[in-house]
Amino acid sequence: MCGESAAVWTYAALRAAGCTRRAVESRRRDGELVLLRRGVYADRDTCDLRRAAALHGGAIACVTAARHAGLWTLAPPDEVHVWLRGHGHRRVHDACTCVEHWDDALDERSAFAAPSIPRLLRQILACRGVEEFFVALESALHLRLITRSGVAWLRAHANDTAREAIDFARGDAESGLESVLRWRLRGAGVRIRAQVSIVSVGRVDFLLGDRLIVEVDGVENHDGPTLRHKDLVRDANAAAWGYTTLRFDYALVVHDWPAVEAAILAHLDRGSHLRRRGGGSHRVHGSGDRR
């Protein structure tokens, strides 16, 4: 092999990696290399997103690079963000709807190398705003894909709003939906704890105050009658112990937030999150305090 798999190469880079002209042609005939455009090749296993970015003239960037790295994002999955750096050349190709990023960096390996995690997070901040930046950052922290030095670089290259988001971010968010909800409720004036274990109920996504449970259900984990029944059993057990449960799905949280917010704030206004006078212990264990 001439280099790492699933990569995009210029002809010059292939030659520099040890491929002779004959070897390049041989690998192309055998299907190991695919000619994307003149002088640019992709390994056989290179994904469609990286190929599309290379056709446009650069590397995957922003939310596209984030998804490729396994980070949670809110952007439509079919968006292709392309990093052209500060000196690239756009090449419009068939069905091109690419979103371009022109920020420069001197420490990347090639024109087709994806940005580092701190840099792609900064791209998300500039392109998609602070909320999606926060969601992707918490995902990176949870997956341990960003180091302390990376966070420090972000802080030095971000605005005041982003620095507030960095201070608010935690590494124990297990889904982007949790990050979204916590970010949007940060000004509600109520203590929010995530991944709280409650006797007879199990671990819940959020506990607001003393006894308002908020569950955020992804389709993959709560679809189907069997899983739905388990959710109902949990909610019934929670009610028996004096808790109120609000349950929302992905579509509600992401696409109809005003309805979610109105439901939560209505319960807060009624005091549904407060422990009743004379009430006993609610048996909360292993709670993860979160701002």
Structure description:
The chain is of the alpha+beta class and 291 residues long. It has three domains: 46 residues, no CATH class; 121 residues, no CATH class; 114 residues, VSR Endonuclease (Endonuclease, Chain A, 3-Layer(aba) Sandwich). Helix content is 42%, strand content 18%. It has 13 helices and twelve strands. β2 and β3 form a beta hairpin. The protein is elongated. The N and C termini lie far apart (50 Å).
Mean pLDDT level: 86
Distance between the termini: 50 Å
Low-confidence stretches: 279-291
Helix tally equals: 13
Summarize the amount of helix as a percent range.
40-55%
The overall strand count is 12
Shape: elongated
The largest pleated sheet is described as: 6 strands, mixed
Give helix and strand order, one letter per element, not per position.
EHHEEHEHEEHHHHHEEEHHEHHEE
Strand content: 15-25%
Coarse structural class: alpha+beta
Tally of distinct domains: 3
What value does the Rg take, in angstroms? 24 Å
